[in-house]
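Troubleshooting: if your tokenizer reports a length mismatch, compare your output against this known-good record of 384 residues.
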Amino acid sequence: MKPFATVPPPVPAADADQQAESTATRKRTTSALIVSIVVHAILLFAAAYVTILVISPKTKMMFEGKKSPSLPARKLEHSIRVKQMKKQTRKPQILQRLVTEAPSKVALPQMPDMKTPDIKDMKDTPLMNSRAGSIGGIGSGGGGAGRGLGGGTGYSDTMFFGENLRTRSICICMDISPSMVAKGVVQDVAAETEAMLAKMNAHTKFNVIVFVDGATAFSPQMVYATQQNKKAAIDWIKHPFDSKRDGNRPGFSGSTPSEAIRTAIEMGAETIFVLSDDPPYLSASYGAPPIESHQSDIMEMVKSAARTTGHPVKVYPTLYKPHQNQRGRESYNYYKEMAKTTGAKCILWPKGWEIPKEGQSRSDFEASLTSRQKRAREDAQSGK
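Known-good structure output:
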């Protein structure tokens, strides 16, 4: 007996329709999704294309030309001026000249023999210094080392009355009143000046002025320290002075370095020595009372020297054997203040010379002197 074959049960018609519809729906959904993706891709590509080629601003074309070669402003200005001068300047015309071969009957006189002056013997003035300094400034502006003819190489290291100095121009002002001459100031100044000049080179300038209440100078202007000028100055110091004529100011009476200091400053001296033994005083005439403002006028002139001349001016008052009493103290106090205002020093000469203290009596002063100080005074008074 044959077994019966298993036959699947028949599917209902309603279920078959439902499955077919579900399959069709899935197919439509997939197609729609694919179409959407393609459309979005196309739109994205189009947007990128529009952004890059249309919306994005176009780069401007820049044309850069080569820079024309240019000259520095100063050279360009000079070149323009040269061209202008060439246009304005007329070319010289060549003129026909007559030439003769016969000797001329007219003869020019023979030129005299002219000797070139030695620059080291030339006298100097403040005006020459200022002009020479400007010439030196031009040299330094170009990178050189020029400092002008009036300075730089004119320094000398020397000594005067025990004071070491470094100067370019020095003036010695010496009181030749009878009391100073009697003390031996001329001999001492001559010896000190000779020693000082021996150490000075020929580029340094100097002068010597004597005074009572006026001023008389060895030379009208500062002179260079040549051998000829040195010898002439020493001979001039040693020659006999007439205190009634030399160093006097007509119409006045007194003992003051006022005019000597003024003259030295106007000559351009940077270092000034003033040798005296009294405080300055001046009267308008013989027997008239002293001018009250005279001392303060000198002090003001010294204080303003650097401002008026344009260079430092140092004044070294040198009290030569001053009176050993309150008059000597007054003189020392005044000249010490003068030296202080210029950054210099007040010197008592000879070394070891003493003066009374402020308010000290003569007897107390004599009692305070040591035997060495008394012996130094005696030697100075005797000229040793």
